[in-house]
Amino acid sequence: MNVDIDPSWKAVLTEEFDKPYFKSLIQFVKEEYTSFRCYPKGKDIFKAFDLCTFEAVKVVILGQDPYHGPGQAHGLCFSVPEGIKTPPSLVNIFKEIEADLEKPNPDSGNLERWAKQGVLLLNATLTVRAHEAGSHQHKGWEIFTDRVIELVSEKREGVVFMLWGGYAKKKIKKIDTAKHLILTSGHPSPLSANRGYWFGNKHFSEANKYLEDLGEKTIDW
Asked: What's the pTM?
């Protein structure tokens, strides 16, 4: 099956694209996009992979579902395009970066600059129907993104996996903890963060220290 994705990822995912579940998933997505308003735009479904090649991955941040409001989702978890109001979870991410690294909050919630430095901003589900959270879950995307996590774990070394919240933490079993750094905390959503499960996790400085110790270039968060 021909999937429009960066060649570096196509090389490791070709077998996945030919599996029956993936063919069914693509058919489902095509029908949804034909019948309903869905996000992100078709050209942005695999944007996380296009901006961060397989060989470039240094950090994996795992989200669950794309934003389902107008103009928000553009293929990178937690990120929004230029000119879109920064969502609450991302506000809390920026607050933690400010406290951890003494970096002022950016004007934009667009995280493409992270992706281009080697941060794979991966949602477990890559599409959603407008205003219907979770509407494309359990259709095959999770099988695909679980395989992405496994392949990064198997074929790369020294990657930082940031797993925020209960859903993301379940992915630990897909990762070789001897080869990679796993950072876990509560989710940055206001509900979790305000209960004390997010702030002070220092994930961003920990990730950079780990990369630096490996002789890798650190991330400009």
From this structure: 0.96
